[in-house]
Amino acid sequence: MGVIRFLDHPSDVYIEVEADSLEEAYALSGVALYQVMTDVETIEKRESINVEVSGYDLYSLLYNWLEELLYLFDAKGFLGSEVKVDNIGKAGDEFKLKAVVVGEKYDPSKHPSKTGVKAVTYHLMEIEQLDGRCRVRFVLDI
Fold this sequence. Notes:
The protein is of the alpha+beta class. Helices cover about 25% and strands about 50% of the residues.
């Protein structure tokens, strides 16, 4: 079972996720992004979006993954309440992630605005896999 923690940071949002697998850790990282923006419990499961991203290592993959979720919100107004990362694997020189994000379009009368996220950063980013667990840390610029 995975856990999301919000850590102390002087000016941005610092998030730590612990999970049983890399896929679960990346999925929970996506949920954490949405939790920063709104109350995830208010997001209904009305629409599914398939997401595929790649990166040259696991750090760039995490960055590109979270940036894609942020893009879905900024460009299409889409908020996710359920995130399922189906696979993270290596294809040639690239790492690839395939996921499904379930949610709905942002409705200000229904989804409370919490904190606006400007960007994902590499600052303090960590990815550790040990003893059958995975821990991910990252900072969101607000």
